[in-house]
Specification:
Layout: E1 16-18, H1 21-25, H2 27-36, E2 41-43, H3 45-48, E3 56-60, E4 63-68, E5 71-75, H4 78-95, E6 100-102, E7 109-113, H5 117-127, E8 136-138, H6 145-148, H7 154-163, E9 168-173, E10 188-192, H8 197-206, E11 210-212, H9 226-233, E12 239-240, E13 253-256, E14 263-266, H10 272-279, E15 306-309, H11 315-324, E16 329-332, H12 338-354, E17 359-362, H13 371-383
Helix pairs in contact: 4-8
The structure holds threonylcarbamoyladenylate and magnesium ion.
Length: about 400
């Protein structure tokens, strides 16, 4: 648990020393640390909420000083010290060609340096994702679009100004330097600037593009907490940048601008209505769903439990009927606000799996606003059985 440490520059704060878990266990070191505890607050990174190696945090009238092999920074709170440590670690891992779970406002991404072909290859291996299924490149700022796209239409700049940082992915014609493993061999690339404070700060400091699909195993429900990522991928992800639960909870809206036209490939966190307002004309709802993405299967976004869609007034009857056939049935009632329903959906489906239900009966919301994306995910989850042996 990270304690909030209110910073008051007029008060000399109690110095904090973070030690490695090994140091804390060593009897001789432990004795020395015991002495330190008189004047210092001694914690392991785990106790302080950090997961990386030993760092020393001392205090001055200016705040907490974090010392590491990357230099020193002054931060006002323990929470910020821990965040700095974690962000620095995430960047080091990306630069070394490792995989980092990155928090975004939609879902957690499994990220790698988008220019590092070997690192990107590992994303596919760890996810069990078929190659040829393109990845979204995450950027720290809209300006970087011109490094990744060969042409950026005026409309893309306009949508970026209106919706970035945020849950919108734009498909543009790719720059020649984008490795083809990132785009699944296509001539287009998906770009997005996410709005999660910690994830975005990390992207800005990293400076390059981070290729990232959702950080779940292929065909499973996307993760909306750091724990979901650890449950799914365990040690196969080199570092999880914990940014808390995702605020939007379902994936970004994907729009295609690569053909000079405009279409929605996947409904998501930015609503069709908001896009229409920004563009100034009506837009077709996404009917076919991510058709431009090869390998796009109906089986996405599905929990283990069979998902049965029913009209609101028929949910209970349908559940009774399935129970009568001896099946373990959960009823999922979505929150009344579509924002809350989206935020909670994937965690709820995971919980239903954890409790061992075989079937979940749910009623899809009206297809307006965020409801369209929710209904899309529920339909895809329900479609899974049909494609199963
Ligand atoms: O909210 C999100 O979009 C999350 C977070 C991590 O940013 N990412 C995400 O990634 O959902 P993923 O890989 O699970 O889904 C991305 C979708 C895939 O269906 C992929 O085929 C499509 O985007 N996509 C990526 N690049 C594309 C391209 N060049 N053309 C068409 N579709 C593309
Ligand atoms: Mg995904």
């Amino acid at each position: 648990m990270v304690k909030k440490f209110p910073y008051n520059p007029a008060i000399m704060v109690r110095p904090i020393v973070l030690v490695s878990a090994e140091t804390a266990r060593d009897p001789a070191e432990a004795e020395a640390l015991q002495r330190l505890r008189w004047g210092f607050d001694v914690r392991t990174p785990g106790e302080a909420g950090a997961t990386s190696a030993a760092f020393i945090v001392e205090a001055s009238v200016r705040g907490l000083v974090v010392l590491s092999d990357r230099g020193r920074v002054v931060v006002p709170t323990i929470a910020e010290a821990v965040e700095w440590i974690a962000r620095t670690r995430a960047i080091d891992v990306l630069r070394a060609g490792g995989l980092v779970a990155v928090p975004t406002e939609t879902v957690y991404g499994l990220g790698a340096d988008a220019r590092n072909v070997e690192a990107v290859r590992r994303i596919f291996a760890v996810k069990g994702r078929p190659s040829g299924h393109p990845l979204i490149v995450h950027l720290g700022e809209a300006r970087a679009m011109s490094e990744w796209a060969s042409e950026v239409p005026e409309l893309a700049w306009r949508l970026a100004r209106r919706f970035w940082p945020g849950p919108l992915t734009m498909i543009l014609r790719k720059d020649a330097r984008v490795p083809s493993i990132v785009t699944g061999g296509q001539e287009t690339v998906g770009l997005r600037v996410p709005s999660h404070a910690i994830g975005l700060a990390m992207l800005r400091e990293f400076g390059g593009g981070v290729a990232a699909p959702s950080a779940n195993r292929f065909g499973c429900v996307s993760p909306t907490t750091a724990q979901h990522v650890r449950d799914d991928l365990g040690d196969e992800v080199d570092f999880v940048l914990d940014g808390g639960p995702c605020a939007v909870g379902i994936e970004s809206t994907i729009v295609d601008l690569s053909s000079g036209d405009f279409s929605i490939l996947r409904p998501g966190g930015v609503t069709r209505e908001a896009l229409e307002e920004a563009i100034g004309r009506p837009v077709w709802p996404c009917s076919t769903g991510e058709v431009r993405a090869p390998g796009q299967l109906e089986s996405h976004y599905a929990p283990r439990a069979e998902v049965v869609l029913a009209r609101r007034e028929e949910v209970e009857a349908r559940a009774r009927e399935l129970r009568a056939r001896g099946r373990r049935v959960a009823v999922l009632s979505l929150a009344a606000s579509t924002e809350a329903a989206a935020r909670e959906l994937y965690a709820a489906l995971r919980e239903i799996d954890r409790q061992g239900y075989e079937v979940v009966v749910v009623s899809a919301p009206e297809e307006e606003g965020l409801g369209a994306a929710l209904a899309d995910r529920l339909r895809k989850a329900a479609g899974r059985r049909n494609s199963r042996p």
